[in-house]
Specification:
With 529 residues, the chain is mainly alpha-helical. The chain is built from 22 helices and eleven strands.
Length: 529
């Protein structure tokens, strides 16, 4: 009885592969497969190979292949061999390896382990429907199995279309899976299956075995839905007398309702998640926990910790739940934990919709006090976000980092950053509906007028600058002393006057970033002056 273990696996170099049939971007399930293979290769000093299974020419395109590659590289999971970088076992596209499949199909024909099948698609459909009506497993009934070789060759040479079918042994097969343990495939589970279509293109199970053997793949880590294919592949390994790789069929990924993962559960592409502002670190951390756990049950793991802890023994057998809320929580954790300069830089592509006032306010200008906000606008008539950044990069970066730091605790995705930063800019400043209600309360005008008076004192005495938390606290205490208003009734009117919102970052951090003059203009507007 065949075994799924390779010969002397402890002496064999670990070589794993991700072999997609690219029809678009890389989705969640594929991304997890990439990660598990990449981590296993790194953890064992092995090699990770990207192989493109593009024999379905109608659906697999070079454009889709490129999208897949961009997503894999975008996650930082760099392969050692692949279609775009080559390697010692190329080519790495199945459409460029057709001669290999033809060679091994001929070998099986010569050994009488395969045969030409001339049954048309229409006839096969009828056979399948008849079997199902009779309650039988819809397998090929062997019509062409015993055709004399000479007759089959003559019909083929005469131009009659034929597939090449494998003669499936009727016997029990046992798989020792690294995740699922012993899996038994009963006799007659599969019938004679196709190796080559009538146009000469190979089918998945055949070319997969040929490629894995020729590329010296030692371990096959893939999703559980491929488990049913394994018995066909075991038959081929046995027939060719090739050592089998170690198989590890990873747990199914399901939605919160325990149904097959779909777009409504969050099964979208890596590209879309990145476009939404999810960090690659958070995505990788989330993906590794879909069917795997660390020995110490740690959940927040950097990539080095993943490599150090990863092993096949920690892969789970039961289905794992894709929890979008957990991914969002994890992304927020990474946004708050990464260095401020780095996370601000990553947020820049999402900030293009912000208005030109993204440069520091006049109160913060120290490098060139004569260079006003208007000067920068005149120097950059296109007034784009990038123009102003380039005009004063040092001040811009310093101010933007400070502003971003005030709101990043609220962020789930980087795409939300413009919404949370909007109150800093006059073009997007507005009073929200909840704040408008508070503006009608009796104490509101009293507090805001006292606040305005304090701002006027600062403007009249430019030597006094409010750059730190203590200075703002002093100002707020002065308003409290002069109005007798305390607590929420004190700080809520000040918050609304500064930001137009009832919630947000600490005002003592916001005040120096907005600047006294900008706040003063807002206060006057709110008071109707």
């Amino acid at each position: 009885m065949p075994s799924s273990s390779p010969t002397n696996p402890e002496k064999q170099e670990v070589r794993v592969r991700y072999a997609p049939s690219p029809t678009g971007y890389l989705h969640v399930g594929g991304a997890r497969t990439v990660l598990f293979n990449w981590l296993f290769a790194k953890a064992t000093n092995g090699k990770f190979i990207l192989r493109i299974e593009d024999t379905d020419q109608a659906r697999s395109t070079r454009q889709s292949e490129q999208l897949h590659i961009e997503d894999i590289r975008g996650l930082g999971l760099i392969y050692d061999e692949g279609p775009d970088i080559g390697g010692p076992f190329g080519p790495y596209r199945q459409s460029e390896r057709l001669s290999f499949y033809a060679q091994y199909a001929k070998e099986l024909l010569d050994l009488n382990r395969a045969y030409f099948c001339f049954c048309s698609d229409e006839l096969l459909t009828q056979k399948r429907e008849t079997a199902m009506k009779l309650g039988k497993v819809p397998q090929y009934d062997g019509t062409c199995r015993d055709l004399p070789k000479e007759e089959a060759l003559m019909r083929k040479q005469a131009g009659e279309k034929a597939t090449v079918r494998f003669k499936a042994p009727v016997k029990e097969y046992k798989l020792q899976d690294a995740v699922r343990g012993e899996v038994i495939f009963q006799p007659q589970m599969v019938g004679d299956f196709v190796l080559l279509r009538n146009d000469g293109m190979p089918v998945y199970n055949f070319c997969c075995v040929v490629d894995d053997h020729l590329m010296k793949i030692s371990h096959v880590l893939r999703a559980e839905e491929h488990l049913s294919n394994t018995v066909r592949q075991m038959m081929l390994y046995e027939t060719f007398n090739w050592p089998m790789p170690v198989f590890a069929h990873c747990s199914l990924i399901v939605g919160a309702d325990k149904q097959k993962l779909s777009k409504r559960h969050g099964d979208t592409s890596v590209h879309e998640y990145i476009q939404e502002g999810f960090l690659k670190e958070a995505l990788l951390n989330f993906l590794i926990l879909l069917g795997w756990s660390a020995p110490d049950n740690k959940e927040i793991l950097n990539i080095q910790e993943m490599i150090e802890r990863f092993s096949l023994k920690r892969l789970h057998k039961p289905p794992c739940v894709f929890d979008l809320k957990k991914l969002e929580w994890m992304n927020g954790q990474y946004i708050r934990s990464l260095p401020l300069s780095e996370i601000t830089e990553r947020a820049l592509p999402f900030l293009k919709e912000l208005p030109i006032e993204s440069v520091p306010p006049e109160d913060l200008r120290d490098a060139n006090p004569t260079k006003t906000h208007e000067d920068l606008q005149d120097a950059n008539p296109t007034k784009t976000h990038e123009d102003l950044r380039d005009a004063n990069p040092t001040q811009y970066k310093e101010w933007l980092e400070k502003a971003f730091d005030t709101i990043r605790g609220q962020l789930i995705k980087l795409k939300d950053a413009p919404r949370y930063l909007s109150f800093y800019f006059n073009e997007t400043f507005k009073i929200d509906e909840e704040a408008k209600k508070i503006c009608q309360e009796p104490h509101f005008a009293l507090v805001v007028k006292a606040f305005k008076a304090e701002l006027e004192l600062i403007i009249q005495n430019p030597v006094k600058n409010l750059y730190n938390e203590e200075d703002f606290t002093t100002l707020q205490e002065s308003v409290k002393f002069k109005t007798g208003v305390m607590g929420k009734n004190l700080f809520m009117p000040i918050r609304i006057a500064m930001t137009g919102q009832t919630h947000g970052p600490e005002l003592k951090l916001v005040f120096p970033l907005l600047g006294v003059k900008k706040i003063f203009e807002r206060v006057k507007k709110i008071l109707g002056e």
